[in-house]
């Protein structure tokens, strides 16, 4: 991180690869031959005396060799920042001694190592250009970048996103802007699979070009502390590493953006979990850049909810572990922070961990029958609503919760369910980011539930209860009624006890003695049910379309 107003000197090494000598003992190992035309005479044999081209570890050797050559210069001038990548070297100092003192020592040290500085590539005055960046006295911005819009294959899309990715943290290109380009990565995974830019992708590229040309990052002010700002935008928050100079015309010195992954690691990422990930990544990045913790972290969240999260959220506690700076909830007033349209203070969720004063309903669902049930007591009588839906048990259970939210959208609500899955989703989904899943029906059900929770105005509580409890009480009775309403026996009338036993055995495959005791039928009838069940036979019967084989069957057929 280059401090403001520090002098900069950028140099380039001339033919760096061809000036790094090989050890005389190793040089013969890098031999090669040049054949003669039509093999008129033996091939000429040579070997490299300098670092060979196209060797896999040549780049690593070059980087290490130049670093060794710079070590004496670093020790001689400890106050000078020296950045180097291969043959490109940047020096920065708070004083004016770079050209008069540092450069002669550097040139002499390089000559000792056999390296030469290209005099025509020495940069002393701004703007300095280094590794694709244009550096000014107070700011850093990318050089003129031409974004390739001719997309024909999946490989072209991958290269385009890769080129944008390395500058996005300096230009503020968030995941929402890149989303139409990410959609082009889906589909056929063949690297040469055809791809075409959609209208949404063209609009996204136009916005990206505007940000690249307009946005810039500031160089660090040495006398100001570094702060981490959390911007609570939709659908995904982001963070800004910045400094605040109250004496400047533009007080916000933006150093870098911090973004979350496009897709969360969990199916549902809550708002507090996303805040925690940004704090964790922001702290690590600031320590990496400046070697110190941020002076303050600002989270746009109401104080009561922040106090509750500090006591109960393990993710936030882990993200703030060891942080000794200031934790604030008020973002400063600045046009850059209002650039994100949906920035707002995170309020306490409507979800409550304890039951609220309102209607209590019981939900249940059965993947076997496809019935989603909501039942409740009103005026001493039990009421219920039943809907049939196609899908897995998880989809049916979630649909029952959706039914409850739709019917009591303008009143406090307690939802009781015996499904761990449905309860866990309903407790976490408010203000969460949903990871895209391949089950389209389940993904749409998540989005519907997210919409209902975010547009509520009254609190709600979702409670889990163990299924099939024989304990007395209101909760056990309500859950039992919901469970009975999803039973398949309510759909098909059973004529007699023997038919009930046959249906039960088709599903549970009980033994004859257990079947006789459970349904109070004769043991002979129970054995007949078991014997006629094809899944309970110890050996398969003979095929019906082929004559039985063997001497016993042959004699029986002859008679």
UniProtKB/TrEMBL annotation:
The keyword Zinc applies. Transmembrane segments: none annotated. Keywords: DNA-binding, Endonuclease, Hydrolase, Metal-binding, Nuclease, Nucleotidyltransferase, RNA-directed DNA polymerase, Transferase, Zinc, Zinc-finger. Its EC number is 3.1.26.4. One of its GO terms (molecular function) is RNA-directed DNA polymerase activity. Residues 496-537 form the Integrase-type domain. Residues 1-135 form the Reverse transcriptase domain. Belongs to the beta type-B retroviral polymerase family. HERV class-II K(HML-2) pol subfamily. This is ribonuclease H. It comes from Anser cygnoides (Swan goose).
């Amino acid at each position: 991180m280059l401090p403001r107003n520090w002098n900069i000197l950028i140099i380039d090494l001339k033919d760096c690869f061809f000036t790094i000598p090989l050890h005389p003992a190793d040089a013969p190992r890098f031999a090669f031959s040049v054949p003669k035309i039509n093999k008129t005479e033996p091939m000429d044999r040579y070997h490299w005396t300098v670092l060979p081209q196209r060797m896999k570890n040549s780049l690593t050797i070059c980087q290490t060799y130049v670093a060794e050559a710079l070590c004496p210069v670093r020790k001689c001038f400890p106050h000078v920042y020296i950045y180097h990548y291969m043959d490109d070297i940047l020096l920065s100092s708070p004083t004016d001694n770079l050209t008069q003192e540092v450069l002669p020592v550097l040139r002499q040290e390089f000559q000792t190592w056999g390296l030469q500085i290209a005099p025509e590539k020495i940069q002393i005055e701004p703007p300095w250009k280094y590794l694709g960046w244009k550096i000014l006295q107070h700011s850093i911005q990318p050089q003129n970048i031409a974004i390739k819009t001719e997309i024909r294959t999946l490989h072209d899309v991958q290269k385009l996103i890769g080129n944008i990715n390395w500058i996005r943290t300096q230009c503020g290109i968030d995941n929402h802007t890149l989303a139409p380009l990410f959609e082009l990565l889906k589909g056929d995974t063949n690297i040469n699979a055809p791809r075409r830019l959609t209208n949404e992708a063209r609009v996204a590229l136009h916005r990206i070009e505007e940000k690249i040309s307009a946005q810039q990052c500031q160089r660090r002010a040495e006398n100001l502390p570094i702060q981490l700002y959390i911007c609570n935008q939709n659908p995904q928050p982001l963070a800004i590493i910045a400094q605040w100079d109250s004496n400047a015309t533009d007080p916000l010195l933006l150093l870098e953006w911090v973004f979350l992954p496009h897709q969360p690691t969990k199916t549902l990422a809550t708002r507090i979990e996303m805040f925690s990930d940004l704090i964790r990544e922001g702290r690590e990045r600031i320590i990496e850049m400046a070697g110190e913790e941020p002076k303050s972290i600002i989270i746009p969240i109401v104080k009561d909810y922040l106090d509750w999260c500090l006591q109960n959220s393990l993710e936030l506690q882990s993200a703030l572990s060891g942080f000794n700076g200031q934790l604030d909830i008020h973002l400063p007033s600045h046009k850059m922070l209002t650039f994100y349209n949906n920035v707002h203070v995170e309020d306490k969720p409507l979800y409550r961990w304890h039951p609220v004063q309102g209607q209590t309903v019981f939900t249940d669902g059965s993947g076997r029958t496809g019935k989603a049930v909501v039942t409740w007591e009103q005026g001493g009588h039990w009421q219920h609503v039943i809907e049939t839906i196609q899908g897995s048990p998880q989809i049916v259970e979630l649909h029952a919760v959706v039914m409850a939210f739709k019917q009591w959208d303008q009143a406090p609500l307690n939802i009781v369910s015996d499904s761990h899955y449905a309860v866990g989703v309903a407790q976490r989904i408010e203000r969460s980011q949903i990871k895209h899943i391949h089950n389209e029906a389940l993904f749409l059900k998540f989005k519907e539930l997210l919409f209902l929770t975010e547009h509520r105005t009254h609190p709600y509580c979702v409670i889990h209860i163990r299924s099939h409890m024989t304990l007395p009480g209101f909760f056990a009775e309500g859950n039992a009624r919901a469970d009975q309403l999803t039973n398949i026996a309510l759909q098909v009338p059973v004529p007699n006890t023997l038919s009930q036993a046959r249906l039960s055995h088709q599903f549970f495959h009980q033994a004859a003695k257990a079947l006789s005791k459970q349904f109070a039928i004769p043991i002979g009838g129970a054995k007949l049910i078991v014997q006629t069940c094809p899944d309970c036979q110890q050996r398969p019967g003979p095929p019906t379309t082929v004559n039985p084989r063997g001497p016993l069957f042959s004699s029986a057929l002859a008679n």
